[in-house]
Task: inverse folding
């Protein structure tokens, strides 16, 4: 960011989190392990997309239409955390990513709901996402040796992207320390019941904690945007 | 309600002392009484329900048809899911995701309907993966541009609705009821496809060309969705008699063409058939000859995407095996823990 860049609107990082995670979950369509999960993952993806659209629409005066915000920004202008851009991996990887994110998003939305341009239903949606992730973490952690191993590996791999979630977002009145403690307690509780171990590794991402919020992302993110934005950008000014 | 009720395992009670029981354990007299009651119910347009007696061939025809329909829903997710990541606006992305999700939901209702006939989802999926059961050949064509999403909605879902609306009155209750719900959602899908194409035809030159190209590629395969001509259709006559099927393939195909021609005009798109013209005498649109050789080739497995579609389905299933095993293992451990808890509570409460 240069010193001349306009300040990032406080809700942009939240909208970007929702859009990018929705996009990742959409990649599961036609690949889920059971038909019920085709429906559930699409449901969560649709909820998140709805949230992103509401948050972007609230920024129209500053950043333009929802499609301009989603399709015409470069990688460095996105403010999502690095956790949500991580590739899906196997089902355990996706579920652990969901657990980490929904355990963060649900209490955050609950705290912010009076000031966010989101319907109260977004808070209820995130509670469902969290329940879905918790139930699956329990099944996979407790199920078989293989599922336990895959889930613990996912936890170990994604752990480093969790510190960033609690880097304060400028303009949002949140007690980030308290949110971080609530998150840790929630995740530990699920891990205990699922027989999973809390990793000891660092909780910093590819750069430093908070990098995604400053527009520094991981390599897979550029390819995600290339795919997502390609068609829109190929027809400048077109209406769809 | 139908008069042909018999308990699912009520064969022993029905089997009389006189005469050897038939293959299903029923004596021939009882079978003919049940058959007569079944025939009467079908003739009176009453619904056959899961616990009713039904001829084996009726049951197996239904399983074959419902399975093929369920498989078509889940394989049909693939060509459209191909565009979720690239949808050109957030609104279109949401609509497309919801549509693909609906198809998974339709798969669930339909596998559920097949289960009422005593065939599990697992068994049907195994047959699909082994190539022993079919899905609609239309999904063996690729979605090459964004306009294909519109063409699938308008033409493929349009053809599916034409085929499926009569199934809401099908003689088998659970299938008919599943179809009522499916048809409602399909009609939303068809409208979104039409509306997507309308946006393209009112857009830039490149968008209009994209729409025309998609319709050029999807028109003929859509007409083939109604199946072979009536005189070559293997299962039609019996299915009509059983009221599983209500109209012939050619009848439904004509109905679809008649609906599409004015819609294509409204869209400003040309249907790729030089022989398409209004026939005053018949009161229908005449259309050109269908290339049935292509239909048979795709059916045999030689379409552009047959291998790819089946391979992705098999891979998703295989990659998901450990997840399904984990869920089953967890459920078993949970119930073992619950009964252990129950046992220790009982032990504690005993004097």
Result:
């Amino acid at each position: 960011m240069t010193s001349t860049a306009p300040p990032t609107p406080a809700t942009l990082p939240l909208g970007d989190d929702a859009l990018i995670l929705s996009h990742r979950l959409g990649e599961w369509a036609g690949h889920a392990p059971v038909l019920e999960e085709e429906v559930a993952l699409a449901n969560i993806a649709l909820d998140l997309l709805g949230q992103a659209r509401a948050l972007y629409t609230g920024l129209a005066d500053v950043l333009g239409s929802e499609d301009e915000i989603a399709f015409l920004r470069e990688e460095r202008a996105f403010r999502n955390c690095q956790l949500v851009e991580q590739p899906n991996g196997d089902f355990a990887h996706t579920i652990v990513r969901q657990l980490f994110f929904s355990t963060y998003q649900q209490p955050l939305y609950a705290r912010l709901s009076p000031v966010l341009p989101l319907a109260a239903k977004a808070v209820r949606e995130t509670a469902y996402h969290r329940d879905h992730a918790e139930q699956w973490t329990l099944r996979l952690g407790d199920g078989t040796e293989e599922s336990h191993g895959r889930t613990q590996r996912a936890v170990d791999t994604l752990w480093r992207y969790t510190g960033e979630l609690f880097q304060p977002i400028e303009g949002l009145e949140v007690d980030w320390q308290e949110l971080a403690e609530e998150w840790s307690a929630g995740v530990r509780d699920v891990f205990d019941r699922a027989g999973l171990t809390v990793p000891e590794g660092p909780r910093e991402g590819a750069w430093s904690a908070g990098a995604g919020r400053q527009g520094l992302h991981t390599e897979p993110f550029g390819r995600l945007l290339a795919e997502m934005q390609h068609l829109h950008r190929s027809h400048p000014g077109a209406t769809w | 309600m139908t008069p042909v009720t018999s308990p699912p395992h009520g064969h022993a009670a029905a089997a009389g002392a006189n005469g050897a029981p038939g293959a299903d354990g029923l004596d021939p007299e009882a079978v003919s009484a049940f058959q007569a009651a079944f025939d009467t119910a079908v003739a009176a347009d009453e619904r056959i329900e899961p616990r009713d007696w039904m001829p084996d061939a009726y049951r197996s025809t239904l399983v074959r048809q419902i399975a093929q329909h369920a498989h078509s829903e889940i394989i049909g997710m693939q060509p459209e899911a191909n565009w979720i990541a690239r949808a050109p606006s957030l609104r279109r992305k949401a609509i497309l995701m919801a549509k693909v999700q609906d198809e998974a939901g339709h798969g669930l209702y339909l596998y559920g309907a097949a289960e009422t006939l005593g065939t599990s989802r697992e068994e049907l999926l195994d047959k699909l993966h082994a190539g022993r059961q079919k899905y609609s050949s239309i999904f063996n064509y690729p979605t090459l541009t964004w306009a294909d999403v519109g063409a699938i909605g308008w033409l493929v879902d349009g053809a599916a609705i034409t085929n499926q609306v009569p199934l809401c009155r099908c003689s088998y209750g659970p299938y008919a009821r599943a179809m009522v719900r499916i048809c409602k959602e399909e009609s939303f899908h068809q409208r979104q496809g039409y509306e997507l194409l309308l946006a393209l035809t009112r857009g830039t030159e490149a968008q209009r060309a994209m729409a025309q190209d998609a319709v050029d590629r999807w028109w003929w395969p859509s007409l083939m969705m109604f199946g072979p001509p009536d005189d070559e259709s293997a299962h039609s006559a019996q299915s009509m008699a059983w009221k599983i099927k209500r109209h012939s393939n050619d009848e439904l195909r004509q109905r679809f063409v008649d609906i599409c021609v004015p819609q294509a005009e409204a869209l400003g798109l040309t249907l790729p058939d030089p022989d398409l013209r209004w026939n005053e005498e018949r009161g229908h649109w005449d259309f050109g000859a269908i290339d049935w050789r292509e239909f048979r080739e795709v059916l045999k497995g030689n379409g552009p995407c047959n291998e790819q579609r089946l391979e992705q389905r098999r891979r998703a299933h295989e990659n998901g095996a450990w997840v399904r095993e984990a869920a089953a293992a967890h459920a078993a451990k949970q119930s073992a823990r619950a009964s252990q808890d129950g046992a220790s509570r009982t032990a504690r409460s005993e004097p």
Q: What stands out?
A: The first helix of chain A runs from residue 12 to 26.
